[in-house]
Write a structure and sequence with these properties.
310 residues; mainly alpha; MetI-like fold; 2 domains; 0% strand; globular
Length: 310
């Protein structure tokens, strides 16, 4: 009797396991379908832009291009790669992004590290002031007047200094430093290491995930930024400092003007400007997308570990 009872329970468990397995498969399929749809939503616009950049101007004007090029034409890419203003703008954007990222991550580390010391004089006040600036700022007009008084308008310093540090990123970096065991710092101090040596030998080697993550934040923010350049670079002499996003903005604006106005501003007629616009979008988007896979393995770790303590 007990044997039959045991067999019955075993078969019931197998049946329940099969039902759970089936539900798990259905759940996995639903999740995979949702991820696939989201992937298409993100990918299709890029495919459309690529197709438009490889199409003829007539096909674009007639709205005949969707996901496949019509009237294959590489003139837009040839123009972007051979025209001085496009090459200069793209190269300057790369240099600007590298400079701003290195400066920003250095200042973030230098700001976050001292705040981890509990015996720092005025530490609570400094923390309050730093966090206060995240919620309340002077605004655009005072910032513009300040840069004007400092004679930084129409100079590359206007693109580097005002946004060289983010309070939010400082908080993430500080929280990551808090997660480093105190025993490591104490052991280094017993060996005679000072604060700077502790930072270099203990904290920085353990902070590669959060440094890579915040570097990605800074790099993407600078690469995609154009509003500060739009406000602070007004003179014709400052065009050499136009980042690629501001150049793209002016291409789009020129495409809405007459051919004569666009030509006077150094652009092209509306039809050709459309293809150049799409080609410039590709040049403005692809480089920063290629950086992400190299930092992806640090990305999730850096954000989650930096958020363990606040």
């Amino acid at each position: 009797m007990s044997t039959v009872h045991s067999v019955h329970h075993a078969s019931k468990r197998m049946h329940d396991g099969m039902i759970k397995s089936t539900k798990t498969r259905v759940g996995d399929l639903v999740i995979a379908a949702v991820c696939f749809i989201l992937m298409l939503v993100c990918l299709l616009p890029m495919v459309h832009v690529l197709a438009a950049s490889l199409s003829s101007a007539d096909s674009l004007i007639k709205n005949e291009v969707f996901l496949w090029p019509k009237g294959w034409n590489l003139e837009a890419y040839r123009t972007v790669l051979t025209t001085e203003k496009y090459v200069t703008s793209l190269g300057w954007t790369v240099i600007l992004t590298v400079i701003c990222t290195l400066l920003s991550i250095t200042l973030t580390i230098c700001c976050a590290y001292p705040l981890t010391y509990s015996n720092l004089r005025g530490g609570k006040l400094i923390n309050f002031i730093i966090i206060f600036t995240m919620y309340f700022s002077a605004g655009t007009i005072p910032s513009y007047l300040l840069l004007s008084k400092l004679r930084m308008l129409d100079t590359p310093y206007a693109l580097i200094i005002p946004n060289c540090i983010s309070v939010f990123n400082v908080i993430i970096m500080r929280s990551f430093f808090y997660s480093v065991p105190d025993s490591l710092k104490e052991a280094a101090e017993i060996d005679g290491a000072g604060p700077i040596r502790v930072l270099i030998r203990v904290y920085l080697p353990l902070s590669l995930p959060v440094i890579a993550t915040l570097s990605l934040f800074y790099a993407v923010g600078r690469w995609n930024g154009f509003s500060d350049a739009l406000m602070y670079l007004k003179s014709s002499e400052s065009r050499v400092y136009w980042p690629i996003q501001l150049l793209l903005y002016n291409i789009i604006r020129a495409a809405t003007q007459t051919s004569e106005q666009a030509t006077q501003e150094g652009f092209f007629d509306a039809g050709v400007s459309k293809t150049i616009q799409m080609a410039t979008v590709m040049f403005a988007t692809v480089p920063i997308l290629l950086v992400y896979p190299w930092l992806q393995r640090y990305f999730v770790t850096g954000v989650t570990i930096g958020a363990v303590k606040g």
